[in-house]
Amino acid sequence: MKKRFLAIGFMAVLASATVVVSCSSDDDDFGTEVSQKSVLTVTLSGDNIATYKKIELEILETNSGAITKKTLENASAYSFELPYGSYKITANGTVVTIGSEEVQVGATAQQDINKGVVNLSLPLIIKQFNNDFIIEEVFFAGSTTNDGKKYNNSRYFKLTNNTNEVLYADNLIIATSEFLTSVKRDITPYRIDQAFAIGSAMYIKSESGKQYPVQPGSYVVVADNAIDHTAWNGFNLKNADFEFPSSNPSLGQVDNPSVPNMKVMYSKMAFNMIFLYATSVESYVIARFPANENEQTFLQNHKYDYTYVTSAGTIKSESSYEIPNSWIIDAVNNSTDDKFLHILTTPSIDAGWTSAAPNNNGRTVRRKILGTMTNGKNIYKDTNNSTLDFVRNSESSLKNGIIK
Amino acid sequence: MSKTKFLLILFLCIGSAKVLAQDSLGLFPKISNQYNEERIQMKNYYYNPASMSDYSDFSMSEFSVNYHSDKQKTYLRQLGSGDNGINLKTNSYKRLKSSSVVWGDASYSNLTRKNLRYNENLDFDRIAPYVTLDSVGGDIKLENYHFSGGFAKEINRFSFGLSGSYDAQMAYRSRDPRLRDTTSDLLLSAGINYKVYRDYQVGIFGEFNKYTQNSAVIFVNEVSYPIVYQSIGFGYTNYFFNNSFKNQYEEFGYKMGGQISSKNGKDFYIIGTLSNSNNIKSIQPKNGNRYYDTSDLESKVSQIEAAKFFTLKNNRIGLILNYHSNIRTGEEYGYSNNSDNTELIFKRKAYKKEQYTTSIKGLYQLSQEQYTFTAMPFIHYQEVTDRRIYPFSGQKYDSYTFGLDLDLKLEINKDQVLTFRPNYAFRNVNKAINALDTNVSSGKLEWIYDDFEILTSDITTVGALLRYDLKIQKLPSFFVSGHWITNRIKEKNNNFATLSLGITF
After folding, report:
1. Which residues of A touch B348 (CB under 8 A)?
2. What range defines the domain where residue A369 resides?
3. pLDDT 10s digits, A378-393
4. ipTM of the complex
5. Is the full-model pTM beyond 0.95?
6. Nearest CA to CA, how far is B251 from chain A (Å)?
7. The pLDDT of residue A130 is above 80
8. Which residue among B272, B302, B336 sits closest to A86, beta carbon to beta carbon?
9. Can you tell me the distance from the alpha carbon of B195 to that of B191, in angstroms, rounded to the nearest whole number?
10. Confidence class of residue B22 from pLDDT cuts 50, 70 and 90?
11. Residues A198 and A333 both lie in one domain
């Protein structure tokens, strides 16, 4: 009897051991790819498009960082087999319009995929290119002095003639954004497809319109203060073409008498100051007044009043100005990976964003160099997508001063 | 946990041990019993706290101060090139009058772990691959506190046992990247044995475990610091939570087991155990103020061990067979920023590591009046498959290790004992498959390829321990011992040495 009990007990242990062993080779549902894969069909569309000549699609999954690329030629749809994830889709390429014109297009979209079949419609926007200046480089991050203090001067814009003709910098407008790429509010009216809301703007005032010629491949530097900032780990901007020093005594900016000043067209700050965020959260545009427009007509006709809902639920009114998209010749959106929420320009002007972070790291955002012109000057990449066109955290091109 | 509080408890343990009646054995039989090789090999049998009532016929305690130095030339970067430092430990086993026993141990270590890289966490084997990665790394200072204790009692045919243990660790680094990491590990277990017939006994036991780890990396240099990644294995990182500096791990687990034995395991025993735990990692993004769960690492361990011993005059012969399987599956969580809030959109099983080990150990012990000689040949076979999907990368290898451990305890005279324990082992890798994805940055690729080379290398281990015990009149016996081990991997030697001073009573 007792031996039987012992035998049963022994078999019980053996049985549990067998269960144990067989459990160990059970795969659970690891790797059952069917349950975690989806088919994403991307369908391109657009106004007046006859043929989708060549479109490059790039799909980024934001959890794993995996990138899937596909080039479509003469096709307007494609189905991707993708695992579940949160995706950002970018399209860049050329189409032929109904009017037989070959134009460059782009689009961006976001899509979460967590079911078997997903369809995404991607409307392509014709990119707006102008045979004009481009923003080659912006230094907004500021630097840190040798004793660890933040130095927020020595900022500059470098605007380059990326064409093969002489261009004039006269009456070029530089504007900063009203909104931030890191803050998304419910704004009414919100019309970035028509105009760019500005927080401040300045321009190169000129009566003749032919006072400041710039050769092909050459550039102008617009500095906040045209002095030598190298003692504070900034740059030597003594030879800047233009400056916008503030008369705010606490900033200690000294007007360089041999460098012409920018004309501040609009600013919300005291002392009519042009202020740049060091934290890579705003966007910048350069624009031109169309014929028959000037500072006065702009301030008269392009006021932008808007309201937004605050986090407390109340409605707040704000007032600013906006530059019509048709005046804009180039733009750059800036943000950071952990804070990016939205771009501030219409995608046809800039569909992406770049970065120089963290603040006060002495780094700039600078365009990629594609090659050289016949005169030996650089040709810069411009596909109206700052994500692809700019290099983040670049070393300043003016680190040895302004040498032309 | 303050050091003074700890040391007070430590000395209380030793003090109280002194109060209880000392068993009167000569030094050589006492040392032979306290460090009985057969009992050391049977440690899985004594995992059940109810089995501890037969652990030893005599009470025994030890206190020691140890210094160890580990210098590795070939090492896995995430484990560092060796821990150096001091360690104080004490353990005690007491037979009480009422057929009960109590046991306990406590230890404190203060170590420097050198050249840690790509891992800003502790307990790597528990949480891998979900650790914080940064390419700079450096040495870390580590303190470890451990307490455990248990009680077992025999009533008629039953034996009951209860035990608990608590481990706390604290690690820090005082230059960028400044690491602050704390862990806490609580284990509670209970067991029952029942003598069914004569010397045959069956038993069951269960264990509960709660573990947490909190880690943070900060940089004093705010201008330029390397990006801190959250690893998902094989050089890949969680892109969504890139540059997050704080994470937490919380683990709950349980273990169950059953055993059948005869003569308290001295004739034969067979044990089966099953354990399951889930370790959930959560990350706080750099500019966020809450933690997001990012992975659930499930660990399933099962083990079966059978042993048989028999005695022929002064010879004791034994055979121990063991099969151990450890399967870890990592379920990863996916988030989306496409709406206003960060929301969870999927969970998927994306990581799996399987380790199967089979071992056969032999025991031959010759006991004479003035010496005891034990020889323990062994052979292990281990198979490891480590892989992930989304994206895919992996490696697989299997190896044989065979070796021989010898133990010689020699009575010099009634107050002096010498112990000499040489050991030798050779690991031969049978087959290795490298299916590592090369789509990672060049620095990380070099690291994962290097790790694969080390994990699939043959290793020769040679070591020896020499210990001298001395009893002076009515004082507790003192001992001094030196232990050295050399592992030869890829034509370089990793050397480990310990020097210990202590007392046994």
Report:
1. 36, 83-84
2. 133-394
3. 889 888 999 989 999 9
4. 0.73
5. no
6. 20
7. no
8. B336
9. 14
10. very low
11. yes
